[in-house]
Amino acid sequence: MRYPLEYKKKFDENLLFWLERFVKSKLTSLSNRQVVQGTRLSLIIAALNRGTKNIEELHILAKEARNIGLIGINTYFNPLEKLFHYLCAMGLKNLKEVDEELLSEFLASQTVSLSDATKKNYRMAVLGFFTFIEKQNEDKKGASYQFRIELKNWGGLKGNNANKLPAHMQDGEIERFLEAIDATQFKLYAQAKNRLLIKIILYSGMRVSEALGIKLKEIVCEDGFYIFQILGKGNKYRIAMIKEIYIQKDLQEWLAIRNTKSPLLFISRTDQPLTQAYVSYIMDKILQNAGIRKEKNGAHMLRHTFATRLYQKNKDLILVQEALGHADLNTSRIYTHFDKDRLKKASEVMDDLQ
Length: 354
Known about the structure:
Elements: H1 11-27, H2 38-50, H3 55-67, H4 73-89, H5 100-110, H6 116-136, H7 171-183, H8 191-204, H9 208-212, E1 219-222, E2 225-231, E3 237-243, H10 244-257, H11 276-290, H12 300-314, H13 317-324, H14 329-332, H15 340-347
Antiparallel strand pairs: 1-2, 2-3
Helix pairs in contact: 1-2, 1-3, 1-4, 2-3, 3-4, 4-6, 7-11, 8-10, 8-12, 12-13
């Protein structure tokens, strides 16, 4: 039987509903050769059909299934239980707000100290869960919502690079990139718009979706700074500030030719919101002109560049969390990896004995 994607009204209830369905599918598909209490397994499945009151009750049922010999259920349930708490803490309104970026941040924050094998299990569980929802959801017209989650380039699955910082630019590359922003040629009506968009992401660390969602009324110029009110994940607002000197010229040039009644700052020539694909096209041209190639060349790399430099200059994890809008401090913790200044202190531990 298929269900509407938003089968329940509240986000946590809806996520729990789909977790119940997924767990039940695993209980009936995993090897049950070691199950010693077939009747008990039937009762667990019946309880899932009735529905659980909360994630704790679902946890108990999954634990009971494991205890009676259903090998493998923990491989799926443990990561997804953590995902449940992670997503609910973000205050999301519906499942459509869950995307590849959000799930990558979840994996990065929750698996940092785990073995490569366990990281693979986390990825497998997350992919399996959202693939299951894609196959089982259906609206009144018979169409299914597709998340299109792949996690192919998630850094936690690259062996010795498991703890590597996300793809980002070093200082010299940033300088070349900034030069290339101004030098790269686009169609005349899009020149200032494209420069402004990329600079805003780089200088503030916004997500691409957040930059594309900026509204004119949410921009204020004050004391030499542009102040942006950003609508982030979970419909939560936060503030970003960019020095006026960095974007003023491009902003004024874009506003002078921007001809639309749309509330959005960035809009296409046909009066449509810009897309992620459009931003990727801009990034590809600029990076090519700058002679820069990374494992991940999308605009999200600019967010990692901003966050990496922010931590390196200030050593303030809370500031990184606030600036990037991370709901979980552990998500921000990935930027503390390979902190050379801290490691230098470790190398000096014997200096007073010389």
